[in-house]
Model the fold of this input.
Amino acid sequence: MSFMEDSPYQPPAAPPLPAPREPGPIKVFGVFHLIFAGLGLITALWSIASTFMPPMFIPKDDPAYQLQIKLQQDMMGYTLASIIVILALVTLLLISGIKLVRSRPDGIKWSAIYSWTSIATKLLTLVVTMIWILPITRSAMRETMEARKNDPTSRRMAAIIEPIIGISMVATPIISCTYPLLALYFLSRRNVKDWAEQRSQGAF
Done:
């Protein structure tokens, strides 16, 4: 009997271990990334259109019409920078979302790049808003109230709207950090990392 042949006295070779089950967050966040990429693209397109459009809900004979146009011009640089940021985040979401949906392990890395970039830009937006955008918006609101000094109803409404706008401008970038933080948390768990490592090594 050849030494290369299996001996009947030896136990059979162990079957190969089955591939670990793909963690649920891989596909879930892949789909959500693509959804948010689509929403981000719509937001960017709307921002581009509104940048070059006159105020839609203010009559031209209203004193606030020209003030609104002036505010749009003052914020033009910020608006264009925001559009560029949104398009960059949309690109990162598309790359990571497609890779995650296709079960590519490097989709986790691209998702982390998106998450950290998104958080950083939102914190920067918060700082710019508090230092620059909020003051010029409040100034525009006060000028509007002064221009409508003969209209008590508009003055009361403006007095109510001003703090609401201020709160929303500060709260929006903070709240919008929730999704990238969730993506970072769920896609950095141990089972996800183990799956990505084995997948990238060609273990399955």
About this structure: Residues 24-193 form one domain. The helical segments are 24-51, 63-74, 76-101, 106-147, 152-175, 178-186, 190-200.
